[in-house]
Amino acid sequence: MSRALRWALGLGLVAVLLIGALLVLPFRDWLPGGTVADIPTAQVVNGSDFNRLFPAPEAGQQIVFTQEKRGFAEARLKQGDELLGLLAISDTTTAPAARSKFSVSAEQLGGWPLVEQGSQASALLVADRFQVKVIGQGSGLNSEKRHELLTAFDLKGLAALKSARAPKALPAGSQPPLRLPLPKRSPEQRTPEPALQEAA
Amino acid sequence: MSRTVLERLDRLPKRNLTVLALKGISTLVPGSWHNLTSSAELISEVIGSSDPELVGQVRARADGLSNARHEGYGRAIGLYDAVNRSQHATGGLRILANATAGIPLLKRLSAITPPSDTLQAVDLSLKVAAEMLAFTQVNGLPGDSFGDFTAALAEYGSEARVRMAALICFDALLPLGDQALQRLDGLLGSTSQADLHRLPAYERMAGQIPGRGDAAHLGFLREGVGQWSGWAQGFIGELGLNGQKAVRALEGTLGPWQGRMDQLAAFLDAFTDTYAHTGVQAVARRLVERAAAEI
């Protein structure tokens, strides 16, 4: 192979790669890595559904919503200017490790498994899917207070979200069955053959 | 792959001009400011425990979240970076115009750079817009009502007091004078679309600013600044901020300054990264708060 041909081939390859990359650029949102753990956002409950399930603040306290994303909502519990704790509900679809930590817990609260993480955080797994967590901040919240806050969430409403919203969990790589709008055949249409035979 | 938010936090400088300038400004704001540059420290502060296993879990989750493009944490950092680059560029232009104004042959250079005040006003409006866009990228639209959302904004404001004080002092009071906020709308009104294109941050942010075309973007910037200046006016009144006070606070950490105020502002714009510095700290805190709740 002549030197010139080798150069031409090399440069051609580089050009093809560059053009290919430029063509893919507008579609990069479709490439993997766009969502947390590569799970489509449609399979994760939106954070706006969690807002109404947060506990009502006690007298003198305030609940300020701070974050609302797919599968996550967080609020701060404040007394005056002092931050007491973080309250959060998250969908564990994107975090299987968060769900598996409950399988070894013996404690329960309100019928749902309870886990303590360190000295300031308590978490509850509702309907085997939603994690409700209270994390004390600053001077902190003791565990009774945290448990009281956890039960003050609308846990029934949260459990109901699973049946209302949960898509069928499909194994990775498979697609939901196609449902074509075929007309249902009625029984008369289904058995024309015997009639024909009798006539013959 | 670009750096995650926590890596960016760990790489922030512990002591340089930016940190000193912020320290100076923080003396004007009640409450102490701490230059947060360690992700481990931030994580153990949020979860209230320094158990290495828990810290590791939070860090892994936070990295996963900041690598996911859909989540917006990386995009928010990108906004702050764009604004920072624009700040350096305009600061450099202003210093150049200042320095060359006295030299006969180079006088034309200061004539072809756009009027300093207009450029500064557009730069400020881009920063305010970046702040709002980054807020929605990082926090979503929290709550079910407009009241919840404004409460979240106020909460963010109290957390970001030092960065807001720095924004008001470095980008409004020092370069534009004590009547900066009153002049702002007029200055933006006289801005042409060509002025907008002189700012490198605009090119980077244009895709994320609502509306189509430069005129719509300019409208959005004006409206955003209008909303923001109402809040900023209250903030200035509450803390009693003015240019003189800002200069004195900065002299406390940076050393004596004998030039004009707008020269100090140009110098700070060109050589400090206050906006990106505090931006990374703010995004990292929100990210860790989320990761701690999700592990």
Strand content of chain B: under 5%
SSE run of chain B = HHHHHHHHHHHHHHHH
N-end to C-end Cα span of chain A: 79 Å
- Overall 3D geometry of chain B? globular
Structural shape of chain A: elongated
Q: What is the number of E strands of chain B? A: 0
How can the largest sheet of chain B be summarized? none
Describe the structure.
- The complex is a heterodimer of chains A (200) and B (295).
- Chain A has helices at residues 3-24, 96-100, 143-152, 155-165, 187-190, 193-199; strands at 61-69, 72-79, 82-91, 108-109, 112-117, 121-126, 130-136.
- Chain A is of the alpha+beta class.
- In chain A, strands 1-2-3-7-6-5-4 form a seven-stranded antiparallel β-sheet.
- The longest helix of chain A is centred in the N-terminal third of the chain and has 22 residues, at 3-24.
- Chain B is mainly α and 295 residues long.
- Helix content of chain B is 75%, strand content 0%.
- Chain B is built from 16 helices and no strands.
- Chain B has helices at residues 5-10, 17-26, 39-47, 52-67, 73-100, 107-112, 116-139, 146-159, 161-176, 180-189, 193-197, 200-205, 213-239, 243-254, 261-271, 274-294.
- The chains are: A alpha+beta (200), B mainly alpha (295).
- The A-B interface holds A 29, 33-37, 41, 47-48, 51-52, 64-70, 72-76, 81, 86, 88, 90, 92, 95, 97-98, 117-121, 131, 133, 135-137, 140 and B 46-49, 51, 54, 57, 61, 64-65, 67-72, 138-144, 148, 151-152, 155-156, 158, 286, 289-290, 292-295.
